[in-house]
Amino acid sequence: MSQGGGDRALFLRASRDIEHVKQHGRRVSTALFNMLVCKIDGRGNSRVGVVVGKRFGIAVRRNRAKRLFRELTRQVRLELVSDHALLVFPKREVLGLPFDELRTAWLSALRRQGVLRSREV
Q1: Which of 70, 82, 55 has its CA nearest to residue 106?
Q2: 86, 89, 102, 115: which sits with the fewest CB atoms below 10 Å from its CB?
Q3: SS3 category, 50
């Protein structure tokens, strides 16, 4: 799977951007992850960063958690509202969960925070 230019605009990578969200974001806690949500005026598309510290476990597990949340983010990229930055801090429990359950929890949290466009039904 190649990471195209579109992915670069989707993910937070610069440490100054991550620090901004840490300082100004509102905290959301779920059983599977914590998240910081920050409004960033005039910067266009929303972006998501995934932060996994060493306390999470060995590198293989940390990388798996990051891959899971990057994939979840890619799946909702077109539904994200503009001008928000999110930082996700996965909990160890995500590794033992079926992807569909994790996706449901992810979508639910995003909806509750108002960062997903409402679907026309």
Answers
A1: 70
A2: 89
A3: strand
